[in-house]
């Protein structure tokens, strides 16, 4: 047998075969480190002021409000939280003294726990009877204060007098209503002040002594 012949030239590359099946998914890699904390964003706009707290007052039983000769305030009534004291006399200076005595229903003042601003007042009166009333009675409600450090002497706060309308005219109809309110007030109160809601009445004409009775209620907003 003779020697093998020389290797022939390489033939052309054959056609590419079909892709093989996809391999199985590899394991999840290790979680990378956390990125750096971003810078703090700008401060948002200031929110709207809160509406404040509402302090409610209701007499429970009817109160009696009197005038003396001249139609000016005689005795007042102190209205609390579902109860009241009637027949309270103003001092010569127009102040009210709550010193009282043992067993006397008199203290209807509350203490202010934080500084704030009285922004509004509303008051309501529903008549139950007229006692010696002639003419038309104007019902009034006002906040009195004993400023911190508080004592038992209370003075009317200027700007808090609410004059209710319409007037209560004799002969009184059971359930005759008078109401009034003040808003947009800016009256500061301090922590430790004591506040008191006082109802009274006056009679313009005829300016004689008289009395009117009814249910009294009110509310104040402190922001």
Describe the structure.
- There is one protein chain.
- The chain is an all-beta fold and 223 residues long.
- It has a single domain, classed as Jelly Rolls.
- It contains no helices and 15 strands.
- The chain has strands spanning 53-58, 63-67, 75-79, 84-89, 96-97, 110-111, 116-131, 136-146, 153-156, 162-163, 168-169, 177-182, 187-189, 194-203, 210-222.
- The strands form 2 sheets. Strands 3, 4, 5, 6, 8, 9, 10, 11 and 14 form a 9-stranded antiparallel sheet that branches. Strands 1, 2, 7, 12, 13 and 15 form a 6-stranded antiparallel sheet that branches.
- The protein is rod-shaped and about 160 Å long.
- The N and C termini lie far apart (120 Å).
- The mean pLDDT is 91.
Keywords, please?
rod-shaped, 6-stranded antiparallel β-sheet, Jelly Rolls, mainly beta
User: How large, in whole angstroms, is the Cα Rg?
Assistant: 41 Å
Helix content, binned percent: under 10%
What number of domains? 1
Strand content: 35-45%
Count of discrete alpha- or pi-helical segments spanning 4 or more residues: 0
- Secondary-structure element order, as H and E? EEEEEEEEEEEEEEE
Largest sheet: 9 strands, antiparallel
As for the CATH topology, it is: Jelly Rolls
How would the global form be characterised?
A: rod-shaped
Give the second-level CATH assignment, the architecture: Sandwich
Measure the end-to-end span: 120 Å
- Class from secondary-structure proportions: mainly beta
- CATH class term: Mainly Beta
């Amino acid at each position: 047998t003779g020697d093998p012949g020389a290797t022939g030239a390489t033939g052309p590359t054959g056609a590419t075969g079909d892709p093989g099946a996809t391999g199985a998914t590899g394991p999840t890699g290790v979680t990378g480190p956390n990125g750096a904390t971003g810078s703090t964003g700008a401060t948002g706009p200031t929110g709207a002021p809160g509406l404040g707290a509402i302090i409610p007052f209701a007499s429970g039983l009817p109160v009696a409000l009197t005038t003396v000769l001249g139609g000016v305030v005689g005795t007042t009534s102190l209205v609390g939280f579902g109860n009241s004291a009637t027949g309270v006399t103003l001092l010569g200076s127009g102040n009210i003294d709550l010193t009282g005595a043992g067993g006397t229903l008199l203290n209807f003042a509350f203490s202010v726990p934080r500084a704030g601003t009285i922004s509004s007042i509303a008051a309501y009166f529903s008549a139950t009877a007229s006692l010696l009333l002639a003419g038309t009675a104007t019902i009034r409600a006002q906040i009195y204060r004993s400023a911190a450090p508080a004592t038992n002497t209370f003075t009317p706060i200027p700007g808090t007098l609410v004059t209710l309308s319409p007037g209560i005219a004799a002969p009184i109809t059971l359930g005759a209503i008078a109401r009034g309110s003040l808003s947009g007030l800016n009256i500061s109160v301090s922590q430790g002040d004591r506040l008191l809601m006082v109802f009274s009445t006056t009679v313009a004409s005829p300016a004689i002594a008289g009395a009117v009775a009814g249910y009294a209620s009110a509310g104040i907003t402190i922001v």
